[in-house]
Amino acid sequence: MLPFDADCVPPYMKDYLASLHAKGRRESTIKRYFYDLNDVAAWMRVVKGDDSFFVYERLTTDEVQSYFDFLTNERAYSMRTLKRVLTVAKQMEQFYVERNKLSYNRAKQVQLHQEEITPFETLDFVSDQELAQLKDIITSEEGLTENQQKYRHLLMERNLSIFTLLAQYGLTLQEITSIKMRHINFVHHELAVYSNGQRSRILPLTKADHQLLYSYWENIPSPVRPALYSGDAFFVAFDYQRGTYRWVYSDHAPKPLTEIAVQKMMRLEVERGGLRKGISAQHLRRTCILKQLQAGEAYETVQSWFGFKTPLSLNRFIAYLEQEQLQSVDTKKATTPF
Predict the structure, then answer these.
(1) So where are the chain's domains?
(2) 60-85: per-residue pLDDT in tens?
(3) What span, in angstroms and rounded, lies between the C-alpha atoms of 2 and 17?
(4) What is 11-117's CATH number?
(5) What is the DSSP track for 83-151?
(6) What is the pLDDT of residue 79?
(7) Are 203 and 253 in contact (CB under 8 A)?
(8) 3-state DSSP call for residue 24?
(9) What SS3 class is residue 308?
(10) Do the domains at 11-117 and 123-312 have one common CATH topology?
């Protein structure tokens, strides 16, 4: 028996946690493993549609790698945190390898990348044309199934609101899924942004963007609509089978949209729009940061707007802009007649 309730994770994960308890591992350690594994299960449900052992044992090495790429690129986990999560994954994999339920330890093949030391390239950003294409596809029914078209009117403004906060305001996935109703001031057109549970900044919303967010909220059916000024999540998950937004009866509140669900939504919209593979929420945030720097905004202003703790976070963007300027000068020299 575990010293805490772990019923929300699949049985095979719970069995592994129970083995740690049997070995005398501290409760705090087991809880840390529990939270990491619960996150893996949530990712499986979104990406694979199921978190059963049948699906888990059939994950490829590339799919396991993609989970850690998600933690690196979308959640911006530190290398220390990535190594911790990878250790948990390796140990559970080995647990089932030793019981002949897995043929090999896939997590041992995972490569962790320190993005901070890698210079930006053009493909790390999104062009104006790609942004326009993505916005157009989000507001269209092109390529949708008949069932998806039936409920598109309920989701279009939600998805467009998420796109807008990523591309025009540069929020992170974690910040978007952390938005509560009490964080939005519809009267003063302001959004309080919280990162890791603490308020990092207040952003003014344009009139058009304020109207978009308000319209999304107002059009949610009243029985499942997040309550004004409450701790309800602003962005809510949708149930296609029932044709409405999800509700958690035990919490008496709408079901929050998760980071992984937003990632999946973005990937599907990118595919539907015929855009290059790999464009993600992180690409939109990076592009928003780059545009402010290109517009000549002071570094201190950009740092404050995007919630960076130190100006060092802008160094890669500044280095990219300087490289672009050098290339532009070299191109002009090469095309200037003597």
Answers:
(1) 11-117, 123-312
(2) 998 999 999 888 877 777 788 899 99
(3) 8
(4) 1.10.150.130
(5) HHHHHHHHHHHHHHHTTTSSSS-GGGG-----GGGSPP-GGGS--HHHHHHHHHHHT--TT--HHHHHH
(6) 84
(7) no
(8) coil
(9) coil
(10) no
Give, in order, the Cα–Cα distances in Å from 285 to each of 59, 244, 281, 293, 336.
Answer: 30, 29, 6, 13, 36
CA distances from 201 to 76, 292, 302, 303, 305 (A): 19, 17, 12, 11, 7
Residue 131 and residue 122: Cα distance in Å, rounded? 14
Residue 260 main-chain phi, psi, to 5 deg? -65, -35
For residue 192, the cross-strand partners are 202
- Nearest 5 degrees, angle CA 177-CA 181-CA 182? 115
The SS3 call for residue 193 is strand
Distance CA 259, CA 70 (A): 10
> Which residues are CB-contacts of 82 (< 8 A; sequence separation ≥ 6)?
68, 71, 72, 112
pTM over cut 0.90:
no
For the chain, counts of helices (H) and of strands (E): 13, 7
| Residue 161 and residue 213 in contact, taking contact as beta carbons nearer than 8 Å | yes
Task: Give the pLDDT confidence of 112-169 residue by residue, as tens digits.
Answer: 875 545 789 999 999 999 999 999 999 999 989 888 899 898 899 999 999 999 999 9
Residue 331 confidence (pLDDT): 59
d(Cα 71, Cα 112) in Å, to the nearest integer? 10
**Beta strand residue intervals within the chain, DSSP E:** 184-185, 190-195, 198-204, 238-239, 244-245, 247-248, 253-254
- Statement: 123-312 belongs to CATH 3.30.450.80: no
* Residue at token pair 């707007």: 305
198 burial type by CB count under 10 A (0-12 exposed, 13-18 middle, 19+ buried): exposed
Distance CA 331, CA 325 (A): 10
93 neighbors 107 (Cβ within 8 angstroms): yes
